[in-house]
Amino acid sequence: MLRLWLSYREKYTRLDALVREWLCDYCLLHRLPPPKLDPMQYRVLLAGCRLKEFYVPTEEGVDALSAAVLLFCNNYDYTKSKFYRPETKADYDRVLGGAIREALSYLREQSGDVLTDLSGSSTLTRDTFTGAVCSWRLKRRIEVDYTSFSHTHELRYIMTDVLKYAENALRASRGIKSRLSIYAISVPLRERLDAYLASALPQRASGRACAKQRDAAPDYERRYDLPVATVSKQRAAEIEAQSWETTKRLVEAFSNEKLTESAPTGVKNDAFELSNKQLKQPLSSTPPAQAATPVPDAQLSLKKALGPLAGFLPLAAASDRQGQRDFARSVGLMPDAVADKINTVAGDMMGDIILEEENGVYVILEDYKEFLIEQGVL
Fold this sequence. Notes:
The chain is mainly alpha-helical. Helices cover 55% and strands 6% of the residues. The protein has three domains: 2-212, no CATH class; 229-260; 299-374, Arc Repressor Mutant, subunit A (Orthogonal Bundle). The strands form two sheets. A two-stranded antiparallel sheet has the order 1-2. Strand 3 and strand 4 (361-364) form a beta hairpin. Helix 5 crosses helix 6 and helix 6 runs antiparallel to helix 9.
């Protein structure tokens, strides 16, 4: 089954979604070890797999776990960074992959078993060989207890910050000024990463190379560069004198005495009083109560990516079978096709699926319900 899958998957792309689940079912039913896959192919072979942990060996010293965490256990896809280019790809893969390995090693030293402590146990109930033509003797409903690394929030947040911290260091080594925001990385882990990055980062480019990089950068990036100018006391004195002259003119223009003299005697200068009130107003005219509430980027990107298909998720949360069928009919698809499209989008953006089939109706994975509610998708 494995050889057929790997041999024909490029020609028959649907095999990826089917055979990886059938292999898992077969091995679980017969108590067989998982087939060995190349960690470099995890992204294309396992994206969207319901039980990624089954295929990934987790014992210490095996690099497959680091590759899986790099791909599936974080909220930041560094390959979509505007600075991830053909000429920087090798450095990005090497430095950020090494940062993940260093973080996993550190967490194991601190807690013994990082997956058990940060992930905990999960339970998955699944029907075997879904979509396959097989004997009724092989059809089973199985319940799997496992330690999750792809669904957990705590480990996912830590690894997200590790990737961003490593990319910030890589950007600094290339003379790039913009930085990614870091939230929850601890000081000891930061020090551990700094020790690794000190030897892993490429050498800082020479002055001529940096100038060449600045010339190749987009216009908006070059605007952050300050102009190079020598310090001149004479020029500073000229600027100060011009500033005081401008101040004097402004004071005279808005002087109360000057405006009062120009107005008829006994007439109240309402225009001047109005201008004084306006000058005392804050620069922002938008009241705090009317300020727009920022919307999380994850919500915006997920809703935008799903488009009209986002209306299927509340029906899945309610396990509304008839509602799902009516919705699918309204968009000209079958419920299976709608769920596949949503899981494909979720797999590309989150590294995991969010819908699964139970008794002929699609439901949202329990691990993602709270996350989707927090983001306002449900």
